[in-house]
Amino acid sequence: MGECSVCGGLSEEDEEKTKKKGKSYVAVYGVDKAMEVAEELRTKAKKELDGFEKYGEKVVPLYSFVDYLADRGFSAW
Q1: So where are the chain's domains?
Q2: Exposed, middle or buried by CB within 10 Å (0-12, 13-18, 19+), for 25?
Q3: Could you please report the per-residue DSSP string of the chain?
Q4: φ and ψ at 37, to 5 degrees?
Q5: How far apart are CA 40 and CA 5, in angstroms?
Q6: How far apart are CA 37 and CA 72, in angstroms?
Q7: How confident is the prediction along the chain (77 residues), in pLDDT tens digits per residue?
Q8: Which of 16, 28, 46, 71 is deepest in the core (most CB within 10 A)?
Q9: CB atoms closer than 10 angstroms to residue 33
Q10: 12 with 5: CB under 8 angstroms?
């Protein structure tokens, strides 16, 4: 199967298995690789947003949102 463009390298089949089992990127890849994948996805997202330059300043909040998603912290319950 092809590589999933959103999930950062898992095949679509592996991504579905991961979703069904409730595993996170950390569970699948380990912490270091999961962080690397997150940075790759941040870069991809920002490159995609570059294509919307014709909208000018209206796109800036989307760049901030991408950074928020990549940098947000998680706390254990």
Answers
A1: 12-71
A2: buried
A3: -PBPTTTTS-BHHHHHHHHHHT--HHHHH-HHHHHHHHHHHHHHHHHHHHTTGGGGGGGHHHHHHHHHHHH------
A4: -60, -40
A5: 11
A6: 15
A7: 344 445 556 677 767 766 666 777 788 888 888 888 889 999 999 999 999 999 999 999 999 999 999 888 765 44
A8: 28
A9: 14
A10: no
Note the pTM of the prediction, 2 decimals. Answer: 0.64
The residue whose two tokens read 């089992």 is 21
Dmax (CA) of the chain? 43
Q: In the structure encoding, which two tokens stand for residue 10, read together?
A: 């898992």
List CB contacts of 66: < 8 A, sequence separation 6 or more: 42, 45, 46, 49
Compute the chain's Rg from CA coordinates: 15
